[in-house]
Amino acid sequence: MRGFVRLARWLAVLLGLALAAAAGALVWYRDAAQPPVTGTEVLAGLREPVTVVRDSHGVPHIRAASKTDAWFALGYVHAQDRLWQMQMNKRIVAGRLAEILGPSAVDNDKFLRTLGVRRNAEAILAQASPEARAALQAYADGVNAWIDQRKGPLPPEFLLLRTRPERWEPADTLGWQTMMAWDLGGNWTQETLRMRLAQVLPVARISELLAPYPGEQPVRTMDYGHLYRQLAPLASAMASVGDQAPPGYVEGMGSNNWVVSGAYTQSGKPMLANDPHLGCRRRRCGTSRA
């Protein structure tokens, strides 16, 4: 009996030590994985010194002597703060989620490759102005500078999925812009339905079937039916895309905002609350004061 008690005590001690070591490792990893926000970095690619100051909310404020350096610094701090999110965005655009998420992401990859988001981004880049290409390249160079020069462990998502960050390319930025357009165009299925109806119905009749917001009159437009009838093959193709696309339209979806007069605020300044119906991971959300 005494031997059993002694063994239990030793096991308890060992368990306590293991838990303490695990807690210490977790604290170390949490701190080590955070990007540095103070000090000086020497980065190849910058033409002049750039200052990045983070406010009390951690938001970076960039001061640069040129647009090119500002784009570079923006890519650098974006990678500092959102490297995993950016790598996921890159994979979404290219239809490459299944490489790290497994078979459950195959259908999503097939759809995005069929849609051709990455191909479209490359086509846009090829036709962009030299100034636009230079800005996109500077931003990508900033992202890659952080990937190349970062110290410490990667964010936990990379470790869990056993992957490493890939180089950022200008087409990745344009590709995510396209995905934002897709996200903001949640009513595209309604518009393709309108195109299909225009093949057989006049515009007035379509306005009755696709009624406006309650209490409002249909928006006066040109006879889009004539245009849509000329695009009959496209209407059939878009219907096929709609059958394969994930659901996106939500009835009543849309943005809203409200404003309070300065006569009713403590500061005497007006307050504006903007609700763009976008996730906060995409842009700054909240209330602003003029």
From TrEMBL:
<dbReference type="GO" id="GO:0017000">
    <property type="term" value="P:antibiotic biosynthetic process"/>
</dbReference>
<keyword id="KW-0378">Hydrolase</keyword>
<comment type="similarity">
    <text>Belongs to the peptidase S45 family.</text>
</comment>
<dbReference type="InterPro" id="IPR002692">
    <property type="entry name" value="S45"/>
</dbReference>
<dbReference type="Pfam" id="PF01804">
    <property type="entry name" value="Penicil_amidase"/>
</dbReference>
<protein>
    <submittedName>
        <fullName>Penicillin amidase, putative</fullName>
        <ecNumber>3.5.1.11</ecNumber>
    </submittedName>
</protein>
<dbReference type="GO" id="GO:0008953">
    <property type="term" value="F:penicillin amidase activity"/>
</dbReference>
<dbReference type="InterPro" id="IPR023343">
    <property type="entry name" value="Penicillin_amidase_dom1"/>
</dbReference>
<dbReference type="InterPro" id="IPR029055">
    <property type="entry name" value="Ntn_hydrolases_N"/>
</dbReference>
